[in-house]
Amino acid sequence: MRSVDVGLLAELFDSTHDMAFFVKDAQGRYVAVNDSLVQRHGWREKRDVLGKRSSDICEGELGTIPSQQDQRVLKTGKALLNQLEMQWYRPPVMTWCLTTKLPMRDVKGKIVGLIGFSKDVKAQVEPDEIPAAFASALAEFEQELSPEVTPLWFAERCQLSARRLASLTRKVFDLTPGQFIAKIRIDTATRLLRETDLSVSEVAHRCGYYDHSAFTRAFRKATGTTPRSFRQLAT
To answer: Does domain 127-234 have CATH number 1.10.10.60?
Structure first.
């Protein structure tokens, strides 16, 4: 990796405020970042972040999980594509992101680092963009959060084909139907964890998870931390 190349890329992405951009070396250390990434983690300058790992700039599991992702990409060469997860947006505020990480190789094919971004998920919805049946199904789901709700359930309730449903959620929310359903469940869970004294098991049940462990796995995959740790961080 030539520093001038990655430096220019970082400058290019400095104007994208809804995206955290980064390049890392083979040890998972930041080689280049944009301004948004720096600010999101509560740092002031790029030089405060360069040379560090995710676990160095973000405390707890919210820093550990990205570093573990990095190691998998660097070790296996398998890209991480559109991973839906929560990240800090200037602590203590959090935001949903779609994270992508790609391995970088030299001319001999050896993995020498990775490049990626985390793009904010923003649902900008106009009334006429969503069919009435979809809005009705969404309201029904948000009211009950039944564990039976799947992309197939949504398609049937909306009287849409699976392909048309996927096109709709991608266009309006920039998410697959499965990601969209998971986001609603986890959004509700984070609110309940912040605003109520319900036990983690009770939160899991209210959000449509069959058991505590399934909820914890889904929550950690999305947020990078456990429900209990999130409650401590958010208070």
So the answer is: yes
